[in-house]
Amino acid sequence: MADTHQGETRRDFLYIATAAVGAVGAASAVWPFVDQMNPAADVLALASIEFDTATVTEGMAVTVKWRGKPVFVRHRTPDEIEKARAVPLADLPDPAADATRALKPEQLIVVGVCTHLGCVPLGQKPSDPRGDYGGWFCPCHGSHYDTAGRIRKGPAPKNLVVPDYQYVSDTVVRIG
Questions:
Q1: What is the pLDDT of residue 8?
Q2: pTM: predicted TM-score of the whole model, two decimal places
C-alpha cells in the first residue's frame, strides 16, 4: 500500500530537493560572472581626483581622467555663458538651466562621454569641430552639445553628465 498523505509522495519530496540543489548550483555557477563586473581596485582608488582650474585660461578646455572616463573642464568666456543662459528651456530635449550645471559659471565640468552610445565628443581642442552650438560634437552619430554640455541636436537622449564635485579652495576642485 502506498502512503499518500494528502497527495504528497516520496517522489514529490525528491523533485523539490532536486530543484533546490539545482538552484543552489546555478547560483554558485553564476556568482563569479556577477562578481567580476564589480569595479577593479585601481578604479576604486581613483574615486576622487583634485584638479587646479587656475591652469585653464579663459576659452581653454582640458581633459582629466576620472574613474577611467574623460572629464571635460572648460573655462567658458562671458559670451559662452551668456549664450548658454539665453536658451529657453523649452527648446532643450533634456531641459536643464545653465546655472544648475556649473558651480562657478566660468568653469564647466562634465563627463566627456556622449549619452547616446558612449563615444567621446570632439570640442576640447581649438581645431576640433564644436557642432552647431559651440560646445561639443559627437561625429559618430551627429549629436551636438552647447557650451553648457546640454544636448541640442542629434540622437543623444540626455545632456553630458555633470559629475559630483566641489571646490576645496578658490581654484582647486575635487571631482568625485
A1: 75
A2: 0.72
